[in-house]
Design a protein that fits this description.
Chains A, B: One of its GO terms (biological process) is cell redox homeostasis. The structure is a homodimer of 219-residue chains. With 219 residues, chain A is of the alpha+beta class. Chain A is built from 6 helices and 13 strands. In chain A, strand 8 and strand 9 form a beta hairpin.
Amino acid sequence: MPGITIGDTVPNLEVETTQGRFKLHDYFADSWTILFSHPGDFTPVCTTELGMMAAYADEFSKRGVKLLGLSCDDIASHNEWIKDVEAYSGGHKVKYPIIADPNREIIKQLNMVDPDEKGPNGQQLPSRALHIVGPNKMVKLSFLYPATTGRNMDEVLRVVDSLQKAAKHKVATPVNWKPNEKVVISPSVNNDQAKEMFPQGFETTDLPSKKGYLRFTQV
Amino acid sequence: MPGITIGDTVPNLEVETTQGRFKLHDYFADSWTILFSHPGDFTPVCTTELGMMAAYADEFSKRGVKLLGLSCDDIASHNEWIKDVEAYSGGHKVKYPIIADPNREIIKQLNMVDPDEKGPNGQQLPSRALHIVGPNKMVKLSFLYPATTGRNMDEVLRVVDSLQKAAKHKVATPVNWKPNEKVVISPSVNNDQAKEMFPQGFETTDLPSKKGYLRFTQV
């Protein structure tokens, strides 16, 4: 039973964090949130990841996205380790809260367990899971990476831009899309509707099937 | 019940594909495999994705990685649609098989359902799920993207390189790592062992905790 997946509402757990106790839904409020776990404090990849998250925090903030970290270490450990993270990241401050889950209850419910890693006493450890939670408190997109593979914060930023564009317009983003590149119009929009919705125009790609479903526009 | 997650063995389902019927484990054999779903044939993002997968196929093949697509359309539809995909991708041939799952059984078992998308008769549709399956037939890493967000094949290639490096050496890849950049030495390796394992040398980053856990090397 792997816990939540995309489309599921994040359970409204009460959590203890480096910035106090709160319920997850109160923290999310009606924002987008990136909820991400790391295997352990004072470990190498995690230090590079949490430092990079601190360095990218302004980019996420500009997009109205909150950050929330999690590992199974306790609050005292998190607070000591943050000094290392901030030193490594060239002084970017860790302004986001980090959950402490020493009982391994939260990582199970949130599908954040790494099957291949164990603590010194055989305890479960978190994977590098990262859920992007929408304003409706449901998981919109997930990365499930193992301890050995550090995440790519540029890819995280790219998919946030994609999700937010699709939430605003009837569009989707094609493979390898980057912000400012063209998007495609949703198949649920017919050509007459598309002319109204996208007065800037759109181009239909000519394909062997002649079905006219691949329509690019700029939003 | 979202189906499989990282660490789970992919069930040995018998599948019907554009290249015949087979059991998943026979296809995987002892290779790495990328098992990926798309919401539907003759839809815009999917056409760009499967075309790009065809364009990147040689890169995956060089790394010994097999490809296996999946949607809920039938084989006749897949075969017609492949003509569009190949035309769009500038002539790159779709050489990998695509599973047909009209009964929606496989997508449920493989955690590939998109909660927000429905077919014309209210049927479930696949998400843009992508599981990287290791030679032991277990899921090592997963991307779970919704229909509106096309995947990034450069990120898929990057994590394949990371997973394969970590399978070969006692290392992990830091945040935003790219091939040929330095990797970090696993915390399970002490400094004496590291000197033997990495005769090319390694550098320990000086951090406030003085714990010496962040050690970079080149492999």
